[in-house]
Amino acid sequence: MRLASAAALAALSLGAAALAQSGGPASAPSATAASFPEWAYPVNPQVGPFDAKEPKTLPGSSRQYTQAQVEDDFAPPDWFPEDHPVMPKAVANGRPPAVKACSKCHVTTGGGHPESSDLAGLPEAYIVRQMADFRDGYRKGGRATSMLPIAKAVSDEELREAARYYAALPRPAWTRVVETDTVPQTELRTGGMRFALSNGDNGKTEPLGNRIIELPQAPERMHLRDSRIGFLAHVPVGSIARGEALVKGGTDKAVACASCHGPGLKGLGEVPHLTGRSPMYVFRQLNDMKLGTRSGPNAALMQPVVARLDQDDMLAIAAYLAAQAP
Prior knowledge:
This protein is of the alpha+beta class. The protein folds into two domains: 67-167, Cytochrome c-like domain (Cytochrome Bc1 Complex, Chain D, domain 2, Orthogonal Bundle); 175-323, Cytochrome Bc1 Complex, Chain D, domain 2 (Orthogonal Bundle), CATH 1.10.760. It is 33% helix and 9% strand. It has helices spanning 6-21, 67-70, 89-92, 103-106, 124-135, 148-153, 156-167, 219-223, 239-247, 258-261, 279-291, 303-306, 311-323, and strands at residues 175-180, 182-184, 186-188, 194-196, 205-207, 213-216, 231-236. The strands form three sheets. A three-stranded mixed sheet has the order 1-7-6. A two-stranded antiparallel ribbon has the order 2-5. Strand 3 and strand 4 (194-196) form a beta hairpin. Helix 5 packs across helix 7, helix 9 crosses helix 13 (311-323) and helix 11 runs antiparallel to helix 13 (311-323).
């Protein structure tokens, strides 16, 4: 894996220091660069310009887009309009200059990407509340940064329409989980999405260690932001069983998640579902709540839950949850 640049790691350290100086939670002083592992907090690389001439196609779609159109923040591709209801404007196109189209990162069917989030089937009120938390500074730093200008600029009507759209979508089987000791060597590309190095690098592998590495199941299709195929999550051997014990409250470090997230962890009222989600994303949210970069009245309910968890615990919990059916 190509490690983040020294400048990127320094930026994470500075962000942690800023948190400590801005009246963050009690745990903030320990929020060093190591608190934000690079595998879970990818830094967007400088990419582009993108080709604006050669049309690209996907199997099963009659549409064509250039790579420049694929990467357009305000008109991202809709390869399969038959797969979803009519998108509201905020989802399909956004509103320049600040309200980027939701479907650019969260895709038309709500599966999302590991560096962003899935949205399909989340409670409408939960989505609205999270956007308010971004706007009000309760979610900050790391991967949350890209959402801040959007949350501040989006109108109440745009937000309600987008939340209603994604809440009504069925949850796709988007992430497949495999336990392994080794993973392909990878690099970050557009948007902070991770890809295996090209065939020119002879498909080299490296130890996985205590990380989660999520890669597209079909890299060339994901380069075009295909909405029909998701990701393969590589997790450490034994992490799923360890995570199951933690999720079910079988250790003295955690309480049973089902007490709040409902039977089968499928959600309860405004409390979101947990199963079948990107393990990288789930780890990041647990870690953010522990460090205080995700806070506010609702996140406060999670503070005693995450207080005794270390990063290996959170990794195992994320691996187990991702391995369960959506």
